[in-house]
Amino acid sequence: MQLDRIVISGIGLTSPLGNDLGTFRQNLLEGNSGVSRFPVRNMGDLPAGVCDFEQTKHQKRKEIRIGTRAGSIAIYCAHEALHDSGLELDNIDRSRVGVYLGITEHGNVETETEVCQLFDHYDEEVKYWSHHHNPRTVANNPAGEITINLGLTGPHYTVGAACAAGNAGIIQGVQMLRLGECDYALAGGVSESIRAYGIFAGFKSQGALADHEDPTKASRPFDTGRNGIVVSEGGCIYVLERLQDAQARGAKIYAEILGYRINSDGTDYVLPNPERQEECIRQALDNAGITPDQVDLVSSHATSTPQGDEQECKAIRNVFGDSGNTLVNNTKSFIGHSMGAAGAIELAGNIPSFEDGQVHATLNLDNLDPACALPGLVSGHAVAKEGGVNVILNNSFGMLGINSVLILKKFEG
């Protein structure tokens, strides 16, 4: 069966390194870190990736008070993606627009806030509990807030896939377009993780929270001095549509979705399984109909944890060998780990490689861990890929052993 070709025609994002693709990309190429210190309840100032976007650009202040931080991130990204795509909602059927957002978790921020307010100010009297709490904490909230803000009446839901969710949201959009359930998909991932102190506390109790006197150096994947995750917030949403529809309206096309795969380790709550990660990569390549040597760039998931980075490198080495033809980089070294948004944001930072042939480096890689040695690993500064970048493979892995791989191709009409 011939499947519809699906393309990206719009990108909207907010990240610790900028609120549009051009700014984000420039900071990556220049080697600028977006990590700073952020006050975390009960824990003091910690390294974190913080977004600074104009919430009132697309929302009224009352809407911001009623909604959630994740919802505001999602609304901002959706508006920016639609604007970038050139789509005018008044000229299309709003019931044919689907919204599919990857999330790691949702509701922790709002519940922590309510509990702390009751404890700190109201002697635990539950009559002061917000009547907005339930709609704020349902899992479909960020996607639902987009539909309310934009007046969309097509399907919407979130995809809970831990830190593999950014890829998973995009994959869901591709699948729904091919099933004919929508004509346009707003797909990607969002996260407000830094607003929940429980996430920081949880990683700290696991011995997996980054610590460094200089916050810009706290996230250091593959480096011998890495000691944990820098928690980050952010979001990235793509406009996806069928190729024939994009061409019919003369849309700008960033890239074509070539293949994907999601699988499960089936082995541990937290520890990654390199064999299953390798399997996921190989199956994504089969789905795309390409061989490993055709991949120009691997955007690694590596979170800056000692074991996690090592296991992913093992999987990458097993698939791509030691030729060095396939380059590897990492974006979390710049912005930290944006959880459910990670895969979507990290992919966006690399998409301009299709046009300029540049591959941004991995930041803070001062002393390479021999267990993380990869022939094509880019460090120090951005490099130009000989022959250009035509295929990008994006890794995103998460807790409970969920793995996702997404493959994009430079669009050629």
Model description:
- By secondary structure, the chain is an alpha/beta fold.
- It folds into two domains: 6-248, 3-Layer(aba) Sandwich (Peroxisomal Thiolase, Chain A, domain 1), CATH 3.40.47.10; 259-409, Peroxisomal Thiolase, Chain A, domain 1, CATH 3.40.47.
- 33% of the residues lie in helices and 21% in strands.
- It is built from 14 helices and 15 strands.
- It has helices spanning 21-30, 61-66, 69-85, 108-121, 133-137, 141-150, 165-178, 197-205, 243-248, 274-288, 306-320, 332-335, 342-350, 353-356, and strands at residues 6-14, 35-40, 44-49, 97-103, 156-160, 184-191, 231-232, 234-242, 255-264, 297-299, 327-329, 358-359, 383-384, 391-398, 402-409.
- The chain has a ten-stranded mixed sheet with strand order 5-4-6-8-1-9-15-14-10-11, sandwiched between helices. Strands 2-3-7 form a three-stranded mixed sheet, with helices on one face. A two-stranded antiparallel sheet has the order 12-13.
- Helix 3 packs across helix 6 (141-150) and helix 7 crosses helix 13 (342-350).
- The longest helix is centred in the N-terminal third of the chain and has 17 residues, at 69-85.
- The two termini are 21 Å apart.
